[in-house]
């Protein structure tokens, strides 16, 4: 990931949001495992459409990463590591994936690109 660019992006965010001045540079991540979906998801975050995510707990364990926690902050990047948005975890819900598959798609906004449900089905076949 492009740490130098992320540092500048974070510093600019801190200037506009002084309460985050003492917070060190957050982790940098992109969504999904391919360029198109990573870039599409970053765009959806920027537009305020993508406002939730999920983690594969087994993947977190394999990569020795912590479970998400309320208050976590991350810089979302495109596939190439360019910062696109800053997110903060404000709420956690732990549930089985099968329940999410049964969620009401009509309650979600219509999207012209890949929908979060489509991405989830590709990532969690």
Automatic annotation (TrEMBL):
Where does the signal peptide begin and end?
Answer: none
List, alphabetically, the InterPro entries matched.
ASCH_domain, PUA-like_sf
Boundaries of each ASCH domain copy? 40-101
Skewed-composition ranges (Basic and acidic residues): 104-125
Which stretches does the entry tag as region Disordered? 100-125
Q: Name one Pfam family in it.
A: ASCH
Q: What is this protein called?
A: ASCH domain-containing protein
Query: What is the organism of origin for this protein?
Result: Sphingobacterium paludis
